[in-house]
Amino acid sequence: MARLSVYSDTDPTVAELSSADTALVTAHLALAGVLFERWPETPSITDAADAQAVLDAYAGPVEALKRARGFQSADVVRMPRGLPDAAARRAAFLAEHTHDEDEARFFVRGGGAFYLHMDEKVFRIVCGAGDLLSIPARTKHWFDMGPDPEFTAIRFFTRLDGWVASFTGDVIADRFPKFEPDTGTIR
Q: 141: which of 39, 91, 113, 164 is 20 to 30 A away, CA to CA?
């Protein structure tokens, strides 16, 4: 279940809003132009399920989202616990960046935290299994998968070569606390 926290972009210590109420999270993000949905979890998806099995399990919602948002393709990304290069993988997404297309991700298992920098606010959305988040193109953001990432997610692409990050050079992500998935807290 997702948790939304909203901060001033100059003060990462005090949340102006913090809620895990799905209706509130959905409505608040919609006002900012961000799509958030809860999809039914499929218990038949195991750690051993291959990418095609994951896509097949969610074929209906995946195809509906592709049609509705103009996505051309979808794939599955897995980050199992205990990867030796976890710190480097985490660091690759921790700098503020944008994309020329929407970034959409549905979490099948595990989770992570997206930080969206919009209108002098930072929206922190901690996503978990069953959460879909679609961030509009050119929205400044970063993603924190935690120090020992663990998730399976379906990613959606408009371009066949996938999304390409354009880094802003702003160090805002360094000022905001990092995501600790075991506790759901920030540090």
A: 39
Q: Would the annotation count 103 as a binding residue? A: yes
pLDDT digits (tens, 9 = 90+) for 94-143: 999 999 999 999 999 999 999 999 999 999 999 999 999 999 999 999 99
Question: What is the average pLDDT score of the chain?
Answer: 92
Known binding residue 150? Answer is no
Question: Is 96 annotated as ligand-binding?
Answer: no
Which residues, listed in sequence order, are joined to residue 9 by a DSSP beta bridge? none
pLDDT at 1: 81
Q: Residue 183: pLDDT band by 50, 70, 90 thresholds?
A: low
Taking alpha carbons only, the member of 76, 85, 141 closest to residue 109 is: 76
Residue 97, annotated as binding a ligand: yes
Domains of the chain: 3-9+17-176 (2.60.120.10)
pLDDT above 90: residue 160? no
Q: Could you give the C-alpha distances from 185 to 79, 105, 155, in angstroms and in order? A: 20, 21, 25
Where are the strands (E) in the chain, listed by range? 3-8, 11-19, 35-38, 73-79, 97-98, 103-110, 112-118, 121-127, 131-135, 140-144, 151-157, 166-167, 179-180, 185-186
| DSSP designation for 137 | T
> Distance between CA 50 and CA 54 in Å, rounded?
7
